[in-house]
Amino acid sequence: MKKLFYLLAIAVTIAVQSCGNHSGSSTGESDSTANPVDSASKSITSVDTSDTASIDKAKETGVGSATQATASTDIKGIVWKELEKLPLASDPSKEESIGVAVIQPSAPAERHSHVENEVGYVLEGESLLEVDGEPARTIRAGDSFAIPAGRVHRAKTTGSVPLKVVVTYIVAQGQPLARPAK
């Protein structure tokens, strides 16, 4: 679990650092009052892996690997953009992956589960998070969450702003990140 939090912290740190190089006032001076979480959110979510210009920009700014995700969620209602992945040090047959998941207000995520734990941080929006065996709870920008391996869950965006979360997963190479609930 510590490894997942560490990976998440690294991703946010990279995003915040790259924002520091590109944010500032109209005079070119940096704004010391800017919220680093807001900056990280804008920087991370600017990576659009279906758009070549965004991929090039991400490579220049150092945000994410800007590669197409080879693993997919296969879950209705979730758009997944993988930022980085690498083989798990303790088991090279598995990969650690970090990316941004987006859920639109009009399309709640289908109930699903993951083989390993899911750890995330809310960048934008608000959602009702429903995890089997737990009371439903609201998560908002700035909140973190952890969902145990195998636990069926879903997110229902509330309000008019899409939910955007940075999420980490461990998955066997070539396997989907998530599976629909039965």
UniProtKB/TrEMBL annotation:
Say yes or no: keyword Signal present.
yes
Q: Give a yes or no for keyword Signal in this entry.
A: yes
Signal peptide (from-to) = 1-18
Can you name the source organism? Mucilaginibacter lutimaris
What is the protein's given name? Cupin domain-containing protein
The protein's UniProt keywords, in alphabetical order, are: Signal
Region Disordered: list its residue ranges. 20-53
All copies of domain Cupin type-2, residue ranges? 100-169
Xref: InterPro entries = Cupin_2 (IPR013096), RmlC-like_jellyroll (IPR014710), RmlC_Cupin_sf (IPR011051)
